Each structure stands twice: as structure tokens, then as C-alpha cells.
């Protein structure tokens, strides 16, 4: 192979143009600003609301009865949450209703219990103990703080619990002891919760949770009788372990 020389005849090449440095800087600046705006828009879009339903089962232990067996219960609730920052942090508000089955039964008509006998009100009216069990409804409102890492969501929360216990006595009616009446405790208590959620699929969350609160000065009262079977200044702890599943109905 041997190179050959050719003379240029009539060939015209365009002159090379050098763009000003300022224009290049402006183009780079515009592109950077576009990327920033796009990133801000994505973050803004990720700040969303979610709402859904949840249900589960739980175990509850209390130290205000002589029975140490845990109660078994079911719960059903609604929740709504909002994500912040890069959608890893969530604030969740929930409302749940629990039904707890009895694990502690006293029936004076069937057995001799340590509560059997007559009691007297402040104005000396007689009351005859009949029965007591610790089955009851409980309503729980929670504010949870959640952090999501991949599919794992640990959380801590503040709980407000409302529950009702009932005890039955025979009370006098027209000076005859023949009316069955309830003496109940209705209390609102503040406690805390700790737990962990795990996301499966896109809309389902498995959860395990621990709750604890204290019941202060618990009393069983009846508006018609000035009588309280419990002493004052008593405090009891109630602790719960719940497992359940949540379904995300919608995101917006």
C-alpha cells in the first residue's frame, strides 16, 4: 500500500465554531435546575395519605384479678396515615374495637367464691353478690410513629384505651332483695405501644404489637347505690400482645 497525494480542487469545509463558555455554563445551569425541580416534584408526590382496615387476635394479661390466665380476644379497626420527607416516615392514626373473652369467672349460684355474701351500701342497703367475669369490650385509639426501611416498618405509639368491666349483685326493690343489677367500671387510660410491621405484596401489612397501660383507682359502681366493692388508691397494669394484618384500601 502506498499513500497518494491529491490536490484540493473546489472542496469547501465549514469553519469550526467555538461556543462561548458563558452559554455552556447557562445550559448546564438550566439542566441542573430541571433535575432539581424534577426531584422536588417526585418528593412532593411521595407525600401521600393512605387509609385501610386491620384485624387480628391478641392475648391480654392483667394483675387486678386473682386469675393469671391470659384473655384471648379479637379486634377490628380503621386507620389513616400520612408519609413525610422521602416517604420513609409515617404518622398513623387508628381506632380499634376489641372483644375479650372471659378467663376469670365467679358465679355464686354455682360455687362458693371468695366474693360470696352480703354487702352493705353507705345507707345500709343490702347487696348480694351474684357473678363476675372479665369478658368485656375495649376501644383503643392510637397515634403511631412509623419508619419504613425496605419492607420492614418498626413503630412506637401512644394509646388511649376505654374499657368496661361489670359485676352483678341482687339489689333491693321495694325493700325486697330480688332485682339483678350491674355495677360497672368505665375508665379511660393512657399507655404506649411498640411493634413491627412487614409489608407483603403492595397492599398488605403483617404486624406484631405490644401495648401496656395502667388503670388507676378502678371501681365498680352503680348510679342508684352508694357502694364500691374496691378500695381506693389502687393501680393495675394491663398488657397486650396482638398480631394481625392490615389492608391498604387507597392511596392519595
Q: Main beta sheet: strand number and arrangement? A: 8 strands, antiparallel, barrel
Query: What is the succession of H and E elements?
Result: HEEEEEEEEEEE
So how many helices?
1
> How many beta-strand runs?
11
Roughly how much helix do the residues carry, as a percent range? 10-25%
Low-confidence parts:
none
Strands of the widest sheet, in order across it, are 1-2-3-7-8-9-10-11
The shape, in one word, is elongated
Going by helix content, strand content and strand pairing, the class is mainly beta
Overall average pLDDT: 83
Beta-strand percentage range: over 45%
Rg calc: 34 Å
Report on the architecture of this protein.
With 252 residues, the chain is mainly beta. The protein is built from 1 helix and 11 strands. Strands 1-2-3-7-8-9-10-11 form an 8-stranded antiparallel barrel. Strand 8 and strand 9 form a beta hairpin. The longest helix is centred in the first third of the chain and has 26 residues. The termini are far apart.
